[in-house]
Design goal:
Layout (H helix, E strand, L loop, with lengths): L5 H4 L6 E5 L4 H12 L3 E6 L10 E5 L5 H15 L4 E4 L14 H28 L5 E6 L22 H20 L5 E8 L11 H9 L13 H8 L10 E4 L7
Parallel strand pairs: 1-2, 1-4, 2-3, 4-5, 5-6, 6-7
Helix pairs in contact: 3-4, 4-5
Length: 258
C-alpha cells in the first residue's frame, strides 16, 4: 500500500451527514469533525447550535415528531439528492432517584432516545426505497449503560447518577440496531452502534472526586475525551466498513471488560 493517508482511507469530502443531537457535547464535536473533513452536515436538535460554517445546515426540531423529521429529510433529498451517513446521537436523561421517577420523565426519555431514532430510520428508509438509493451508513449512539448498570459506589452527593430509563433506552437502541441492520441489509443500508463510556464534560461541572472514582473503574484509568470516538465513528461512516453491520462497538477504556 503506497501513500495510504488518512484522507484516502476516510474520504468524506462532500458527503451528506445527518447528525441528531448536534448541539450537545458529542454532537457538536462530531459535526465539527466531518465539517473539517469537507462534509456537508445537517444538524437536528431542540437546543440552539453555535456552529458557523457554510456547509452546516441546522434544524431546531424535536426528532420524536415524525412529521417534522419527514419534512427535514424531504428538504435534504431535494437539495442534495442523497444522504451518505446518519448519526443518531440525540439522547436525554434525568437524574432524580429511581423512586422519584415521573411518568413525564419516562415518556420524554423514551420518546427522544428510542422513538426519535426509529422515526429518523423509518422515514429515511421510505425515501431510500422510493428514490432507489444505492447505500447509506447509519450509526446509532448507544452507551455502556445499555449493557451495564452504573456502579453506584462512584457517585457522591450532588453527582448525576445515570438513570434506569436512560440505560433501558440505550439497551433498546442496541437491539434496534441489530433489528434494522437485518431489515435494511437488502437495501444496502449498514446499521451499527457506537457505545461510549463516560466522557469528560466541563459543561456539566463534573466533580474531581467523581472523575477520580470513575477512572479507578476503568482499566485505562481515565474518562474518555470526545476525540477518543473519532476513529471508530469515521470507520463506521466510511466505505471501509461496508462488511460491518449489526454491531455494537464499545469504546470505554476497557470498563466493560471486567
Amino acid at each position: 500500500m503506497k501513500n495510504l493517508s488518512i484522507n484516502k482511507l476516510f474520504n468524506f469530502k462532500d458527503k451528506i451527514i445527518i447528525i441528531s443531537g448536534s448541539s450537545g457535547l458529542l454532537g457538536t464535536s462530531f459535526a465539527q469533525l466531518f465539517l473539517n473533513m469537507g462534509s456537508i452536515v445537517v444538524g437536528i436538535d431542540k437546543s440552539k447550535n453555535k456552529i458557523k460554517n457554510d456547509k452546516f445546515y441546522f434544524f431546531n426540531a424535536d426528532i420524536s415528531d415524525e412529521k417534522i423529521i419527514n419534512k427535514i429529510l424531504k428538504f435534504v433529498f431535494k437539495k442534495f439528492k442523497k444522504i451518505d451517513v446518519i448519526i443518531n446521537n440525540a439522547g436525554i436523561s434525568y437524574f432524580k432517584k429511581f423512586e422519584k421517577r415521573t411518568k413525564k420523565e419516562l415518556n420524554s426519555t423514551f420518546n427522544t432516545n428510542v422513538v426519535g431514532t426509529i422515526n429518523i430510520c423509518k422515514n429515511y428508509l421510505n425515501f431510500h426505497k422510493k428514490l432507489k438509493l444505492e447505500k447509506c451508513s447509519i450509526i446509532n449512539i448507544g452507551s455502556i449503560y445499555g449493557i451495564l448498570s452504573p456502579d453506584f459506589n462512584i457517585y457522591g452527593k450532588g453527582d448525576n447518577i445515570n438513570s434506569e430509563i436512560y440505560g433501558a433506552t440505550k439497551a433498546g437502541i442496541i437491539q434496534f440496531t441489530k433489528y434494522f441492520s437485518v431489515y435494511g441489509a437488502k437495501y444496502n443500508i449498514n446499521v451499527n452502534c457506537l457505545s461510549p463510556g463516560g466522557v469528560l464534560n466541563s459543561n456539566k461541572k463534573q466533580k474531581t472526586k467523581f472523575i477520580k472514582n470513575y477512572s479507578k473503574r476503568v482499566p485505562l484509568n481515565r474518562m474518555a475525551n470526545v476525540d477518543d470516538f473519532y476513529t471508530c465513528l469515521m470507520f463506521l461512516a466510511s466505505d471501509k466498513s461496508s462488511y460491518v453491520t449489526g454491531q455494537n462497538i464499545v469504546v470505554d477504556g476497557g470498563l466493560s471488560a471486567w
